[in-house]
């Protein structure tokens, strides 16, 4: 029976393992709706994360710096999903949070134009409105390699093959898009907030000038 201790010292006992979302729901419907992630024993986790033992928990919302980082990271995934829906032959590579925004690197047959950025941004808004659940899963490296090979994602396969074979990896899926990622992420695409795509720049794959030049879209 876990006892969850909140930042103000309040302790909430539960009769069985409980998710971060369920704890937020037990406090108020408004907090449950606003919750983007949680910090359990100092670790940033998804709202679906299950607490099985006595723990300290902070509910993360868009008002928190951590919440903003989670939103930006999730917007990178949202952008990658939009790009692949609009440009099916585009391959995804990596998409982290940086400074006051995010980016994602793509391999595509031609440069993205300002008109493309507008279309991508509109598609992102469309996907956000679909309120797709963002689901975390884990799989072995070999299973992940097989999955991404089947999808024709050679850059993801290269990343995966550089990871030790006995390491269990986490993935995030929303609708038809799945990505290798440590997370955490927002619980659904509707919580993406406001976003704006800013520019496109060139970037070498893995920062090596002997590799292919990719296109980096900043948001």
Overview of this structure, please?
Belongs to the class-II aminoacyl-tRNA synthetase family. It comes from marine metagenome. Keywords: Aminoacyl-tRNA synthetase, ATP-binding, Cytoplasm, Ligase, Metal-binding, Nucleotide-binding, Protein biosynthesis, RNA-binding, tRNA-binding, Zinc. The N and C termini lie far apart (43 Å). Helix 3 packs across helix 4 (114-129) and helix 5 (141-150) packs antiparallel against helix 6 (154-161). This protein has two domains: 3-60, Beta-grasp domain (Ubiquitin-like (UB roll)), CATH 3.10.20.30; 67-218, Threonyl-tRNA Synthetase, Chain A, domain 2 (2-Layer Sandwich). The chain contains six helices and 15 strands. It is globular. The strands form four sheets. It has a five-stranded mixed beta sheet. With 219 residues, it is of the alpha+beta class.
